[in-house]
């Protein structure tokens, strides 16, 4: 079944159900659809209603939005973990990470911001970084 929003020549809008789009075209050409308000048979299709998704499409949509939520939750958990257990060093990150790397006594977990260039430089020095997608908490 498909639901169409219909509009007559007098701009009255109403809804009607059809078994498919062909049925609508057939009934329209035979002038078997009339405006529920004024009775004119000059009808045009307005916007198609969005609730014509198949069952499968609906399920897919629900599933993907659930997956997305799950990923987001996981990323938020990771962010919380980092914030609780790591020291934030902001833009000093590459300097701080070198201090830790070259001075083994300084053993602490840090997090902060690096540019792509800095990441490359550190990599050349043998310092591998883990990048975490930083989820904005306000969105939730
Ligand atoms: Zn009408």
In short:
The protein has 140 residues and is α+β, with helices and mostly antiparallel strands.
Number of strands: 5
Average pLDDT figure: 85
Bound molecules: zinc ion
CA-CA gap between termini: 36 Å
Low-confidence stretches: none
Q: Any idea what the radius of gyration is?
A: 30 Å
Q: How many domains?
A: 2
What is the number of helical segments per DSSP (H or I, 4+ residues)?
4
How is the biggest beta sheet arranged?
Answer: 3 strands, antiparallel
Structural class: alpha+beta
Strand arrangement in the largest pleated sheet = 2-1-3
Strand content: 15-25%
Order of helices and strands: EEHEHEHEH
Shape: rod-shaped
Which percent range fits the helix content?
40-55%
Kindly describe this structure.
It is built from four helices and five strands, in the order E-E-H-E-H-E-H-E-H. It folds into two domains: 47 residues, no CATH class; 71 residues, no CATH class. Strands 2-1-3 form a three-stranded antiparallel sheet. The model has no long low-confidence stretch (mean pLDDT 85). Strand 4, helix 3 and strand 5 form a beta-alpha-beta unit. The chain starts with a strand and ends in a 16-residue tail after the last helix. 6% of the residues are buried. With 140 residues, the chain is of the alpha+beta class. Bound molecules: zinc ion. Zinc ion binds next to loops.
């Amino acid at each position: 079944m498909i639901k169409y929003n219909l509009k007559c020549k007098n701009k009255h809008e109403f809804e009607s159900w059809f078994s498919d789009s062909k049925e609508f075209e057939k009934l329209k050409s035979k002038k078997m659809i009339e405006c529920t308000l004024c009775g004119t048979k000059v009808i045009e299709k307005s916007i198609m209603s969005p609730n014509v998704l198949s069952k499968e499409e609906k399920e897919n949509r629900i599933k993907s939005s659930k997956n997305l939520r799950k990923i987001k939750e996981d990323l938020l958990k990771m962010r919380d973990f980092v914030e609780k257990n790591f020291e934030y060093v902001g833009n000093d990150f590459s300097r701080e990470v070198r201090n830790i790397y070259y001075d083994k006594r300084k053993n602490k977990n840090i997090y902060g911001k690096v540019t792509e260039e800095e990441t490359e430089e550190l990599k050349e020095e043998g310092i591998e970084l883990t990048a975490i997608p930083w989820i904005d908490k306000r969105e939730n």
